[in-house]
């Protein structure tokens, strides 16, 4: 893994921004702050575990809209929401959409620090998973299209004979393709293969 | 000298003729009966001339009773000359003189170129009727028989003329009488007519008077107001029936009493003094038309009246008539109106406060944020400081910087709270001279976050050196905040153009201070004036009171609030406030 963790703070209030930076710095975190969502988006994402401390009420794009926008851009950064007035429906929506925490201003410093810690850990874990998934994907990409086809049918529980019938080939041919694919995927057992394919199917970052 | 008859036969013939003539003469009156004197004379002359073979016969009647004298003459046919009667008369007058008593029985004289014997005979006892003159050229004239006949004829004529005169006199008298009677009758008729006319006129006048009096009486009797007349001493002469209803006195009961019985005790002296002064100087201590005073009923109850006076001088005495209207109900209605106006004002003030709270409710989220931001910064900074202290990480510059931030944010939070408290507190309108631009700036700060979060670009063009306005600061803030919040909301759906909120202050054409809040939102469509109606709203959760209340607040300040479309998009809400004189801010 590369680089030290970074906490991104997006809040339009300069006082709040600088106080957050100051507070987070006391626990040795590196903080980068932005006055708006736009300026944050213009910043290149670092190759390090990171999280976003985001005010829900932002000029223009709201915090929740911003959360959606990030998801659409496939930027899977954990978010700690800050809000002036915590209303429950909004917090539920934020959490459902993957927010780590929803803190009502003013909050206890420890709550924020805990939330940031969790967020960074989650991002770190995601990055690990992303890395594993990337390896699996690479293996999967190395299969021929017929091999990919055959193992998709295998993990769905079909027998070799059934696969051969559906593809219009001999059962022996299916057997050969299956074992070659298992080899390329470095799967030690059918169960192992199934786990790998499941992992490939699920989108990154959404581990719950 | 008598001529002797030549013979007896002649004598007898003569006498016979004489007798015949006498008979004729005596028969004359029968012919005259009822005749006029001129007619009598006429027949007399003809008869004598025929009977006595005279050459002339003349009669002159004296004038009587307005009738001209009559002169008549006859000549024998043999006479060639014909004189006029008055010529003959003149001659005879010279001969005879005027007095009939002195006339000689016979005069011989020359008339023209011939001798003539004339016999004058007076008519009437004293000749007062006239004279009969018979003349003949014959030498034997008059013979005895002729004298006899002349004298009989003269007597007969006298009698006839006397009768005629009498008759004529009677006639004249009768006619005069008739005439007088007729004249008198005419006069009487005229007088009668005059009298009738006069009577009719008087009757008419009386009727007029009666009808006019009747009219006035009816008016006064039927009048809703009490009508009370008093004399110079201030004693009541007359009161109409309405007096009973209004004052409780029977109209007859207060006649003769002083006018002051209709007034409360405390006013009586003032009235008497004022009345005395008026009688002495002609100066009125009150306006006489529609003056409002307090009156007193018989039962002592006091009530407000409106009084008008009229003055009349009759037979040298002054009379005063008061028309007294009970205005208790009107007063009561006025009081009620005032009370309900006060209530309305209270309600309006309460409504304004509620509306302020509603506006604040709408603003609550951003206000909470506004307070929470500095508090959050304070707590973050303080927490960080505590951590540094716990770690003995004591860099003074770092700590000082954090503490300065804490102080600044604490102050900021308290400023926000003070602003909010001032805005929502329940206080009666308190007007003072305000700088409108200052109020606009304050409200822009209050609405700053809303503007910011909705990405609305405020653009204020505030004219410097504006005169100050007399206004309640909080109410003015409310109006402005309302307009600004409306503008922000109207622009929420706008994504294809900048969201511009303009706030302008300037002086309008009439010298008032004008504030215009414009937006580039969706505009009104059809709702242009309805937006000011209470409970009209285009917002899903709006109360629809904001603009209605804003308008009434502005109007309470003597200004106007109206809406107009903005170009090319949106709306402009403008309001004016009268510039306060003489106190520039």
Provide a descriptive summary of the structure in words:
- By secondary structure, chain A is α/β, with parallel strands linked by helices.
- Chain A has helices spanning 14-25, 37-41, 63-72, 88-96, 109-141, 145-155, 160-167, 171-184, 190-201; strands at 6-10, 30-34, 50-55, 79-83, 101-104.
- Chain A folds into two domains: 6-129, Response regulator (Rossmann fold, 3-Layer(aba) Sandwich), CATH 3.40.50.2300; 134-201, Arc Repressor Mutant, subunit A (Orthogonal Bundle), CATH 1.10.10.
- Chain A is built from nine helices and five strands, in the order βαβαβαβαβααααα.
- In chain A, helix 6 crosses helix 8 (171-184) and helix 7 crosses helix 8 (171-184).
- Chain B has 585 residues and is an alpha+beta fold.
- In chain B, 51% of the residues lie in helices and 19% in strands.
- In chain B, 29% of the residues are buried.
- The A-B interface holds A 12-13, 15-16, 18-20, 22-23, 25-27, 57-60, 82, 84-85, 105-109 and B 364-366, 368-369, 372-381, 383-384, 387-388, 391, 393, 402, 405, 408-409, 412, 452-455.
Estimated share of beta-strand residues of chain B: 15-25%
Mean pLDDT of chain A, rounded to whole units?
Answer: 86
CATH fold title of the largest domain in chain B: Beta-Lactamase
Task: Compute the number of structural domains of chain A.
Answer: 2
Number of strands of chain B: 17
Number of helical elements of chain B: 13
Order of helices and strands of chain B: HHEEHEEEHEEHHHEEEHHEHHEEHEEHEE
Order of helices and strands of chain A: EHEHEHEHEHHHHH
- Please describe the biggest sheet of chain B, giving its number of strands, its sense, and whether it closes into a barrel: 5 strands, antiparallel
């Amino acid at each position: 893994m590369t680089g030290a963790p970074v906490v991104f703070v997006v809040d339009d209030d300069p006082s709040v921004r600088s106080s957050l930076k100051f507070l987070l710095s006391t626990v040795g975190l590196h903080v980068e702050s932005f006055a708006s969502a736009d300026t944050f988006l213009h910043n290149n994402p670092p190759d390090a575990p990171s999280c976003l401390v985001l005010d829900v009420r932002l000029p223009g794009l709201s915090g929740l809209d911003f959360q959606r926008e990030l998801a659409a851009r496939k930027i899977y950064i954990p978010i700690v929401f800050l809000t002036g007035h915590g209303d429950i429906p909004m917090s539920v929506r934020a959490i459902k959409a993957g927010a780590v925490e929803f803190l009502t201003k003013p909050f206890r410093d420890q709550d924020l620090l805990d939330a940031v810690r969790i967020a960074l850990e989650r991002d770190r874990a995601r990055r690990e998973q992303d890395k594993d998934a990337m390896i699996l994907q690479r293996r999967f990409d190395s299969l021929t299209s017929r091999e990919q086809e055959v193992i998709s049918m295998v993990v769905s529980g079909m027998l070799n004979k059934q696969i051969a019938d559906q593809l219009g080939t001999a059962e022996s041919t299916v057997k050969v393709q299956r074992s070659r694919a298992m080899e390329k995927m470095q799967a030690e057992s059918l169960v192992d293969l199934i786990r790998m394919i499941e992992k490939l199917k699920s989108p990154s970052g959404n581990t719950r | 000298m008598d001529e002797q008859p030549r013979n007896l036969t002649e004598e007898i013939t003569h006498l016979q003729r004489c007798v015949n003539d006498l008979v004729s003469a005596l028969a004359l009156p029968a012919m005259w009966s009822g005749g006029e004197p001129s007619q009598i004379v006429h027949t007399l002359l003809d008869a004598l001339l025929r009977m006595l073979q005279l050459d002339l016969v003349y009669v002159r009647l004296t004038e009587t009773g307005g009738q001209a004298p009559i002169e008549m003459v006859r000549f024998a046919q043999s006479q060639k000359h014909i004189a006029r009667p008055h010529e003959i008369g003149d001659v005879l007058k010279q001969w005879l003189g005027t007095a009939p008593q002195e006339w000689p029985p016979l005069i011989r004289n020359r008339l023209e170129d011939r001798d003539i014997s004339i016999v004058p005979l007076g008519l009437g006892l004293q000749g007062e009727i006239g004279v009969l003159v018979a003349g003949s050229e014959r030498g034997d004239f008059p013979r005895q028989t002729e004298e006899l006949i002349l004298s009989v004829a003269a007597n007969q004529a006298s009698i006839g003329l006397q009768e005629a005169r009498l008759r004529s006199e009677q006639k004249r008298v009768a006619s005069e009488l008739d005439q007088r009677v007729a004249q008198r009758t005419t006069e009487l008729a005229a007088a009668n007519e005059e009298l009738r006319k006069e009577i009719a006129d008087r009757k008419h006048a009386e009727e007029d008077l009666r009808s006019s009096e009747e009219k006035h009486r009816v008016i006064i009797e039927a009048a809703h107001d009490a009508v009370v007349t008093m004399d110079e001493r201030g004693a009541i002469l007359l009161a109409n029936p309405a007096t009973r209803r209004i004052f409780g006195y029977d109209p007859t009961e207060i006649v003769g009493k002083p006018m002051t019985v209709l007034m409360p005790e405390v006013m009586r002296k003032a009235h008497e003094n004022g009345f005395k002064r008026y009688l002495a100087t002609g100066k009125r201590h009150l306006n006489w038309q529609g003056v409002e005073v307090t009156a007193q009923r018989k039962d002592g109850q006091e009530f407000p009246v409106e009084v008008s006076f009229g003055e009349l001088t009759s037979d040298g005495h002054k009379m005063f008539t008061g028309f007294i209207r009970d205005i208790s109900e009107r007063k009561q209605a006025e009081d009620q109106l005032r009370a309900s106006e006060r209530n309305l004002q209270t309600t309006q003030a309460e409504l304004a406060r509620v509306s302020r709270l509603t506006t604040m409710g709408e603003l609550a989220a951003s206000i909470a944020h506004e307070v929470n931001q500095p508090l959050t910064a304070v707590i973050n900074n303080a927490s960080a400081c505590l951590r540094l202290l716990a770690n003995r990480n004591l860099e003074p510059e770092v700590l000082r910087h954090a503490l300065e931030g804490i102080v600044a944010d604490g102050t900021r939070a308290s400023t926000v709270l003070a602003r909010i408290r001032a805005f929502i507190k329940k206080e009666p309108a308190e007007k003072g001279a305000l700088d409108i631009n200052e109020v606009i700036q304050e409200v822009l700060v209050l609405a700053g976050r809303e503007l910011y979060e909705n990405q609305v670009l405020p653009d204020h063009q505030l004219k410097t050196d504006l005169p100050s306005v007399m206004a309640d600061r909080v109410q003015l803030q409310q109006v402005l905040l309302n307009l600004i919040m409306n503008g922000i909301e109207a622009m929420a759906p706008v994504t294809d153009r900048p969201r511009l909120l303009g706030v302008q202050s300037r002086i309008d054409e009439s010298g008032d201070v004008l504030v215009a809040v414009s937006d580039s939102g969706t505009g009104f469509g059809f709702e242009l004036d309805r937006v000011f109606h209470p409970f009209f709203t285009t917002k899903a959760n709006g109360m629809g009171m904001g603009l209605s209340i804003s308008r009434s607040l502005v109007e309470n300040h003597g200004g106007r609030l109206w809406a107009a479309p903005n170009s090319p998009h949106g709306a402009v809400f403008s309001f004016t406030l009268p510039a306060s004189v003489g106190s520039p801010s």
